[in-house]
Design a protein that fits this description.
- The radius of gyration is 21 Å and the shape is globular.
- The chain has eight helices and no strands.
- It has one domain.
- With about 200 residues, the chain is an all-alpha fold.
């Protein structure tokens, strides 16, 4: 995906109240800044250790490492935790975390194990089924706010965190460093002479 297309997609599919109204460039800058914000010494703040492992596994199935970095290489779990802790409303955070519990429930029904304890093939199958359900919701007549679904949030945040990370921009998107501003016609101070000349 070209960077321009990615920016359009990120802006069009946000579905998160804290990102509403941001332009595509503001959204990219916001994501990049979030990656640079240092984490506190307390570690993750919104995700429990089990939820952290679940998000890592799910994000890695959504964007696996190949000859380019995967979601884990891009620090997606930390990005998602920061979004949950600092940017989501309590209701959005609750919906996301409840979704992770639902994911475990599906896996227990299917294999008698939590999502992280399932095989990679089973994890992919469960996520693919969720993706099919989400697609059906989006296509249903009169669908309202399909991006509010917890799995839509997970997919979006995984892609958002990935595409605004340095590893992905450098090695996947080929857009690092980002272009900076260039003022070719900057004003010059008139009337000053170099030191020692009159």
């Amino acid at each position: 995906m070209e960077r321009r297309e990615l920016v359009r997609w990120l802006a069009a599919t946000a579905g998160i109240s804290c990102l509403e109204g941001l332009s595509a460039n503001e959204l990219l800058a916001f994501g990049e800044e979030l990656h640079l914000t240092p984490t506190t010494g307390q570690g993750l703040r919104a995700l429990t250790p089990h939820a952290q492992r679940t998000v890592i596994a799910a994000a890695e199935r959504i964007i696996p490492a190949t000859d380019t970095p995967g979601a884990t290489d891009a620090g997606v779990v930390t990005f998602i935790d920061k979004m949950l802790a600092d940017r989501y409303t309590p209701e959005e955070r609750r919906r996301f975390l409840a979704g992770l519990e639902e994911l475990d429930g599906r896996c227990r029904s299917l294999r008698g194990k939590t999502f992280v304890d399932c095989t990679e093939a089973d994890q992919v199958a469960v996520l693919a089924a969720l993706d099919d359900e989400l697609t059906a919701i989006r296509r249903a007549p009169g669908a309202t706010s399909p991006n509010d679904h917890w799995f839509a949030m997970l997919k979006y945040l995984t892609a958002f965190g990935y595409c605004t990370s340095e590893p992905a921009m450098r090695r996947t998107l080929g857009s690092w460093p980002r272009p900076t501003r260039y003022d070719g016609c900057a004003p010059v101070a008139i009337g000053r002479t170099p030191q020692g000349r009159s």
